[in-house]
Amino acid sequence: MAKKGMGFEIDVDDSDVRVLFDALRNVDAELRKNTNAELRLAAKECAAELASMLKRNTVNSPAPQTRLVELSVKVKSDRVPIVTVGGTRKVGRAYQSRKGGKKRAVAGALLWGVEFGDKHGRFAPRNESGYWIRPTVAEFSKTGAIDTYKRAVVRILNSAGVL
Questions:
Q1: What Cα–Cα distance (Å) separates residue 127 from each residue in 112, 120, 142?
Q2: Is 84 helix (H, G, I), strand (E, B) or coil?
């Protein structure tokens, strides 16, 4: 989730997984703990694949700041695959602020410019379809990683006796 304007979200349809979450509410606490652990592992593997693709595809963005934002790519542990980009991580060289003192840019402040460019020449030229993240997510959706995650969800449902 974006904090204080430091990023943006790409929503993915998780309706297939909602059935599992609803079913897990009604099962034994120990079984729920085990299935949640399995689900987190499957989600982490899927998200790790996307994160590695994002890091690998930074070369597709003409903005030099992309390499700085790449440092902020992280996989979050959850029951659904989550990769964060941007946020409040400090990146780049320190610069003299107007209020005095040295500061470094936060990755989230650079995120929009490296993904979509700008009209002022600070980043790459404007590109509404995105240079780096959107094309990588589209490419990722064509891989088998999401299907592998869905198969893991079905396997967990079967082993829990929900299906």
A1: 11, 13, 22
A2: strand
Cβ neighbours of residue 39 closer than 8 Å, sequence gap 6 or more? 20, 79, 152, 153, 156
Non-local (6+) Cβ contacts of 88 within 8 A are 3, 6, 106, 107, 108
Report how far apart the first and last C-alpha atoms of the chain are (Å, whole number): 32
Q: How far apart are CA 152 and CA 16, in angstroms?
A: 12
**90 with 104: CB under 8 angstroms?**
yes
Q: Is 74 helix (H, G, I), strand (E, B) or coil?
A: strand
Residue type, position 42, single letter: A
Q: What is the pLDDT of residue 2?
A: 44
> Which tens digit of pLDDT belongs to each residue from 113-141?
999 999 888 899 999 999 999 999 999 98
Contact 113, 65 (CB under 8 A): yes
Q: What is the pTM of this model?
A: 0.78
